[in-house]
Amino acid sequence: MTSRLRLLWGALVLSAAAAITVAVIPPAHAADAVLSQNRPVTASSQESAGTPAAAGVDGNTGTRWSSAFAPTQWFQVDLGTAATVSRIDIAWENAYAKAFSIQFSSDGSAYTQVYATTTGPGGRQSITANGTARYVRINLTTRALAAYGYSFWEFQVFGAAGPAIGRAINGLTLVNNASRKPILGPGPLADGTVVDLTRLANRNLSVRADLAAGAAPASVAFTMTGAKGSSYTRTETQQPYFLCNDYADCPLLATPDTYTLTAQAYTSTGAQLGAPYTVHFTVTGTATAQSPVDVLFVGNSLIGTATAATGEDTPALVRHLASAAGRTVNVTEVIHFGNTLQQTWDGGEVAAALSGAKQYDFIVLQEYSTLVATNPAQATNTLVNTYAPTFARSLKPGGRVVLFKNWALVDPAPFATRAAETAAIDTGYAAMSASLGAANLVAPVSDEFETIIAANGTSYLIVADGKHPNDTAIYLDAATLYGILLRESPRSLPDLYLTAAVASNMRATAAAAIGY
């Protein structure tokens, strides 16, 4: 049976099942709310790009999650903070699970089983499952259709949300202690991240806890455990909050294993500040097979300007460099010259790209040239309230958002100097990154521009209009994004249309800025 036929047949079965069983599904109590809708999800697999995990919590009974055709699978939703759960409703497709269990967890590491069955009926199920959980996982072990996997239209967790305690820690950044720069690409760490030691400049590594906007903890406690039995704990009482002290090497980060790392912020009285931040990642000393990377670029002429030498804009040049290095980058572009990100969204095209029909390893967002510096509140509002709600359905597990940090223009108005404009850009992007709940990083393009302009002047990178990049700058931007998206140093990339000396300088500047 093809996926399309299964989808249509499943819809008929679901409709019939819902009609039969609706009378026995208890209505939501006054205090009950759907806690899972559009929350971040992870799954053991997906059948295709058209049946992503995010479709299982999008509130749309016309879309579904479907796993690979294997007997043992799982699906997990992150409620964002600890919540009181009362029940779970599952609207199964025809490929339902006969045997499955449901587990609760507060940290994504230790789980407690709250329900299990070996006689699941399929159709529409409503399961009483009382308890407190941030993570709700369903483990699927016996298929109704042995030739397929598992699939459901909706997985809904009901209950009462916990208090709005916010998030004190917004990310865990991998740091190159030798250069004191974040290693962008492998970091910030996310569930499923693979730190490939063979692709790093050195093994002098640590991890820094990055704070959410407005958070001011008195201390951060780290706990790191390895699957092979290793463990490390430390409490840091001074900013910046490092796993192994400021820029001190962490031996476990250079030791191949699979790790769980949790960071918990505390107040001066010892009370927990926000929920713990936990990631599960792997360190390997063996070169890993490299899969194609799917990237969505949203922006305007700062990344859409094409080189005179090759006719390629920044995303296309990233793809070109990747191909030259034997890698594959699949590029989707939504670029409209002169637009803010909000204007591009209002045009409708980017909303379609972020519908969840396709998922990306990275989403690169490039805002209007001066907006972040002159109106950071507007830029942040667009990011947090317009784009961020789409990330759970549009990013693959472990996927990241990249904020493209624009450079200061030649004319700094309304700022008195380019230095003042650059400072405002730095502040604005740091605040935007801290305000965003999804795993994200800032591509330090502005920093690189200032390094090169200090030695060569603005005309070395910016054309006569005082705003747009020239061919050298586009190469610099592409080399930077290559390092981030492909998670390896850009130092050995080809010169393409630049002289060897100029290209080498651009690559070295990019590599240093992103931690390689």
Automatic annotation (TrEMBL):
Source domain of life: Bacteria
Keyword Nuclease assigned: no
Key words of the record: Signal
Range of residues in the leader sequence: 1-30
InterPro entries, alphabetized: FA58C, Galactose-bd-like_sf, SGNH_hydro_sf, TAT_signal
Xref: Pfam families: F5_F8_type_C
Keyword Signal: yes
Location of the F5/8 type C domain: 23-160
Protein name as it appears in the record: F5/8 type C domain-containing protein
Organism, scientific name: Dactylosporangium matsuzakiense
